[in-house]
Design a protein that fits this description.
The chain is α/β, with parallel strands linked by helices. It folds into 2 domains: 14-266, TIM Barrel; 319-396, Arc Repressor Mutant, subunit A, CATH 1.10.10. Helix content is 41%, strand content 22%. The protein is built from 16 helices and 15 strands. The chain has helices at residues 44-59, 82-95, 115-124, 138-143, 150-161, 181-193, 211-217, 226-242, 261-267, 294-302, 319-332, 339-346, 350-353, 355-363, 378-382, 384-396; strands at residues 14-22, 65-74, 97-108, 128-134, 168-174, 198-203, 246-249, 252-254, 272-275, 280-283, 286-290, 311-316, 337-338, 367-369, 373-376. A 9-stranded mixed beta sheet has the order 7-8-6-5-4-3-2-1-9, with helices on both faces. Strand 5, helix 6 (181-193) and strand 6 form a beta-alpha-beta unit. Helix 1 packs parallel to helix 2 (82-95) and helix 11 runs antiparallel to helix 16. The N and C termini lie far apart (55 Å). Bound molecules: iron/sulfur cluster. Iron/sulfur cluster binds next to loops.
């Protein structure tokens, strides 16, 4: 017989994911446009109490839900101390019904990892670790403004390799100004040495409000040439495919059955709750975004709040918005858009609705379509933003 813990009730439960945003970093990387803060460590205790309060007040509405994944992201979740992390996890455990086997992942900075952190992760049930490595090349790490070098990265990966955790992801970035194909190749090969089941490869983008964006506009740094990006992209595919990794999403590679369950739930538009400043939630077509300001978040949580007061945006998606999101998220995935699924969801025949556009994209070798599904080709993955904008235009007409 299953023993129910506090706040766990019998009966059917809807699957739900939880994302927790820990917005602290030791220093700010010049390319980063996440909601993050550095040099405000004095706010961490108040932030932790606020987070716990937000987690508690939301739980009443979701008492019939079953938590199937929890993801700690940021910022840098490994930056906060062990006691704060235990308090946050206890508040989830005491207020939500956790599935018997839920994916529980944490993003870590290589410089933060040590034995005591690993012991804690094991104690609270963390079973997936994602390492923000970015590169094994010291020149590239310096350019990216990271607070670790290649030696620290390798040490942290070795520590993980010898630990209880076998579900490990590494993040690597390509398309960094001045990065050579050989530097990228070396990083990929270094990753292979560890035989981890998952790799995320991100193309660096120059987002407004970042230092890199300013540097680019003032010609202090230069974007890599298009053919350099294509070469890195193709090399990634060649090396990873040859080593049994499948590109199940544009930026994500996994060995068989080792995909990130939490991320797949985002891409499949499943329900999730976000806690912490700037985090987003999606519940049955309703989207909510928390206020981004850390200080305002703490201030609001100190008062008696109801969950809606923390949101800076609440919207119910229109059918058009749902379709745009569905097309974009599914085209990012290897399986692509399954025509029957599209028809079931939108009462519309995919191949008829987009007939002319599909023909044009097909003729340009950007998509591959058969009677059952449509997905991006290799060339299409490189030009995904263009393809998404074509679909968005067509749906918004
Ligand atoms: S550590 Fe991560 S979240 Fe923090 S500034 Fe760097 S890229 Fe952004």
């Amino acid at each position: 017989m299953k023993i129910l813990k506090k706040n766990q009730i019998s009966g059917p439960h809807k699957d739900l994911s939880i994302y927790i945003h820990i917005p602290f970093c030791e220093k700010i990387c010049p390319y980063c446009d996440f909601n993050k803060y550095s040099k405000v460590d004095e706010l961490i205790p108040d932030f932790t109490q606020s987070l716990i309060k937000e987690i508690q007040i939301n739980s009443k509405e979701f008492k019939n839900s079953k938590i199937v994944t929890i993801s700690l992201g940021g910022g840098t979740p490994s930056y906060i101390n062990n006691q704060d992390l235990i308090s946050v996890f206890d508040s989830i455990k005491n207020n939500y019904y956790l599935d018997d086997e839920f994916e529980f992942s944490i993003e870590i900075n290589p410089a933060d990892l040590d034995d005591s952190k690993l012991e804690l992760y094991e104690e609270i049930g963390i079973n997936r670790v994602s390492v923000g490595g970015q590169s094994f090349d010291n020149k590239i790490l310096k350019k990216l403004g990271r607070n670790h070098d290649s030696e620290i990265l390798i040490k942290s990966l070795e520590l993980l390799s010898n630990s209880y955790i076998d579900n490990i992801n590494l993040d690597l970035i390509f398309g960094v100004p001045s990065q050579t194909l050989t530097q990228w190749e070396n990083s990929l090969k270094m990753f292979l040495n560890f035989s981890f089941p998952h790799l995320s490869t991100y193309l660096l983008t120059f987002e407004p409000k970042t230092k890199f964006y300013k540097d680019l506009n003032q010609r202090r740094i230069f974007e890599p040439k298009e053919n350099e990006i294509i070469n890195m992209f193709n090399l990634t595919k060649e090396i990873l495919n040859n080593n049994n990794y499948s590109q199940y999403e544009i930026s994500n590679w996994a060995k068989k059955d080792r995909e990130s369950i939490h991320n797949l739930r985002y891409w499949n538009s499943e329900n999730y709750l976000g806690f912490g400043p700037g985090s987003s939630s999606h519940i049955d077509g309703r989207r909510m975004k928390n206020i981004s300001s850390l200080k305002k978040y703490i201030q609001l949580c100190k008062n008696k709040i109801n969950p809606d007061e923390l949101y800076s945006e609440i919207s119910t998606m229109t059918e058009e918005e749902k379709m745009i999101e569905y097309v974009m998220l599914n085209l990012r995935l290897k399986k692509g858009i399954e025509h029957e699924d599209f028809q079931r969801k939108f009462d519309n025949v995919f191949t008829l609705k987009f007939r002319d556009m599909l023909e044009e994209l097909n003729n340009n070798f950007l998509i591959k379509s058969n009677s059952k599904s449509t997905s991006l080709t290799n060339k299409g993955k490189l030009l995904s933003d263009y393809i998404f904008s074509k679909f968005t235009e067509e749906i918004s007409l």
